UniProtKB/TrEMBL annotation:
<dbReference type="Pfam" id="PF02653">
    <property type="entry name" value="BPD_transp_2"/>
</dbReference>
<feature type="transmembrane region" description="Helical">
    <location>
        <begin position="237"/>
        <end position="256"/>
    </location>
</feature>
<feature type="transmembrane region" description="Helical">
    <location>
        <begin position="321"/>
        <end position="346"/>
    </location>
</feature>
<protein>
    <submittedName>
        <fullName>Branched-chain amino acid ABC transporter permease</fullName>
    </submittedName>
</protein>
<keyword id="KW-0472">Membrane</keyword>
<feature type="transmembrane region" description="Helical">
    <location>
        <begin position="186"/>
        <end position="206"/>
    </location>
</feature>
<keyword id="KW-1003">Cell membrane</keyword>
<dbReference type="GO" id="GO:0005886">
    <property type="term" value="C:plasma membrane"/>
</dbReference>
<dbReference type="InterPro" id="IPR043428">
    <property type="entry name" value="LivM-like"/>
</dbReference>
<feature type="transmembrane region" description="Helical">
    <location>
        <begin position="28"/>
        <end position="45"/>
    </location>
</feature>
<feature type="transmembrane region" description="Helical">
    <location>
        <begin position="106"/>
        <end position="129"/>
    </location>
</feature>
<keyword id="KW-1133">Transmembrane helix</keyword>
<feature type="transmembrane region" description="Helical">
    <location>
        <begin position="82"/>
        <end position="99"/>
    </location>
</feature>
<keyword id="KW-0812">Transmembrane</keyword>
<dbReference type="GO" id="GO:0015658">
    <property type="term" value="F:branched-chain amino acid transmembrane transporter activity"/>
</dbReference>
<dbReference type="InterPro" id="IPR001851">
    <property type="entry name" value="ABC_transp_permease"/>
</dbReference>
<feature type="transmembrane region" description="Helical">
    <location>
        <begin position="268"/>
        <end position="301"/>
    </location>
</feature>
């Protein structure tokens, strides 16, 4: 009996599918493995650096935390914020006050700064949910300019230190690490641990139903509302999460730099965070890391370049701004989706060549 064409089609084997590694078959397990590897990488990097390198590593960590929160807000939920430096200031001042007046343990101080700033972010988010486009950008811009200046307000000057700010005395490293253990390395460890925890939580948030709702709101608010998403609540939650990240970053800023001062939280800080998010790729947590590394190390590189070239002082001061502009133009021109899109393109190209 001959076999019909239909039976041949029916009995044709299904195309083989590529089986994922065991640690990628579960999102939570995969993120846990990446988090552990990240902690190990940060530890090995910190012990290989000198004190100044550890200081820069700590700065990269808290900058990445703030940028990751901003990329969730702007890249995932589609809300523009030019005022994240204000949330960083709230976290820094909260840390300074609690360490100097209450002598709380550092871990509890970090949690308190995160929670308090997140609560403020939720209040701002309620107002932001009623604003769109340039109106939201303008409101957050006013927040960035106005909130840090409250430290010099007559009624708060004694509490917040006025224009000079507050000096922060962070707890020393544990004695179990040795009396000569570098304080900069201890700060790098604290910042690295906080960074890994934040990225782990945000990575799971992105894959959660809330992350899906944020993407729906970003793409089309009306369509999201018709599909059952509470648009305003989702936008408020996005601000809440993002502000909490900025508050934790501000707490680490105060600990690492031993200072909480209005001059440290100018509009330039908010724009720097936004630049890091755009350079790395809005909506990408890995991009937040790339962008933060770049905006943290670029001023040092540019200063070294200006010194080696023996440039005049009036030119020397503008070298970082010029390099910022050049790097931003190059990245946006070559990879409109940010550095992370370039990394993905390079990965796809490499895999395609390896299959040949």
């Amino acid at each position: 009996m001959t076999e019909t064409k239909e039976s041949k089609v029916h009995r044709a084997p299904a195309p083989a599918t590529r089986e994922l590694p065991w640690w990628r078959q579960s999102t939570l397990l995969g993120h846990t493995v990446v988090a552990v590897l990240g902690l190990l990488a940060l530890y090995l990097l910190s012990i290989s650096l000198d004190p100044f390198g550890d200081l820069q590593l700590a700065q990269i960590c808290y900058t990445t935390i703030a940028t990751a929160g901003l990329t969730v807000l702007s890249g995932l939920s589609g809300q523009i914020s030019l005022g994240h430096g204000a949330f960083v200031a709230v976290g820094a001042y909260t840390t300074a006050l609690l360490l100097e007046h209450q002598q709380w343990p550092l871990a509890l101080v970090l949690v308190a700064a995160t929670v308090l700033t997140a609560a403020l972010g939720a209040l701002v988010g309620v107002a932001a949910a009623r604003l769109r486009g340039p109106y939201l950008a303008g409101a957050t811009l006013a927040l960035a300019v106005g909130l840090p200046s409250l430290a010099d307000y007559h009624g708060l000057r004694d509490l917040l230190g006025g224009a000079n700010g507050l000096i922060v005395t962070p707890p020393p490293p544990p004695l179990s690490l040795g009396e000569a253990f570098p304080l900069e390395r201890w700060h790098a460890w604290i910042g690295g641990l906080c960074l890994v925890v934040v990225l782990f939580l945000l990575a799971n948030l992105v894959r959660s139903p809330l992350g899906r709702n944020m993407r729906l709101v970003r793409e089309d608010e009306d369509a999201a509302a018709l599909s059952g998403v509470h648009v305003a609540r989702t936008q408020v939650l996005a601000f809440w999460v993002s502000a909490g990240c900025a508050g934790l970053a501000g707490a680490l800023f105060a600990v690492v730099n031993n200072l909480a001062s209005p001059g440290a939280f100018t509009l330039a800080l908010s724009l720097s965070l936004l630049t890091a998010a755009v350079l790395g790729g809005l909506g990408s947590l890995a991009g937040a890391v790339y962008g933060s590394v770049l905006v943290t190390l670029l001023p040092t590189w540019s200063n070294n370049l200006a010194q080696s070239a023996q440039l005049p002082e009036e030119i020397y001061a503008n070298v970082p701004l010029v390099l910022y502009g050049i790097v931003l133009i190059l990245v946006i021109t070559l990879f409109p989706g940010g550095i992370q899109s370039g990394v993905r393109w390079a990965g796809r190209t490499l895999r395609a060549r390896l299959r040949r």
